[in-house]
Task: structure prediction
Amino acid sequence: MLFFMTGFATVVGCCFLIPQLVHLVRVGDASGVSPHAAAIGVVQTTSWALYGIGTGAWAVVVPSAIAIPQYVAVVLLATSAAKRSSAIGQGVLAALAVLVAAGASALGGSGPWPGLGTALTMAVVWQYLPAVVEAYRPTGTRGLSCPTWFLIGGNGLSWAAYGVVTRATAVTCYGVVLVSAAAAVLSAIYVHAERPPAPTSPSDHRPGGEGQALTSAGATSGRVRSALASVGTSRPSVPLATAGLVGLFLRNRARTGASMKSQRPNPLIPRADERARR
Result:
């Protein structure tokens, strides 16, 4: 059982950022992705790799070493030059905190590794808190990858169960933090997906009958969304909502046809240029 837990956590630790990288390249939008969390992740995974080498825990070394270039790629893809410098500053602070913890442990006579391991376990909150905050910003979550955060949540469940079985409180807390962060980010993705799109600005309307038709269509789409919402929230209103949708469609079609018809030239009335030639 323990072998399965550690094996699953190792495999997830090697590949959980791959869906996020693919999503960033495909979408080209980093909304919701925290560069600070990624920069701190670079320091975290590097420190975990060194910790694994120093303590002989090779199951920690392999996923950490594989995750380092992935975190670097996220920082490069998800940030502009200004945000990148700020994220690098956060990474430098995290590196200094890790060095201080290792130095304090070494000065205490127990070597650098116990203090480093404790600091890394506690620093997971520092890493994932910016990711949760960024996910709830008004800019949206279009740049976030759901599979990545499902993998993070599964990884957290695995480590939490491992900590409970082995009675390792620090490992259990580490897993709980991962599960909580994944649940919060996935909830943010769901909340942003449920929000209606922003209304069309008047500057986007074309002049004449087409602009009036677009305006009418935009207003009608809002009524359609309201009707669909009523369908999803109360079953007794399904017939009324269906009838309302049909009525809105027919009325909008009639208005659009009348508006476009009013823009057509009347063949019985000569145009200004024809009257001038006569």
Q: What stands out?
A: The longest helix spans residues 81-107. Confidence is low (pLDDT under 50) at residues 200-217, 227-241.
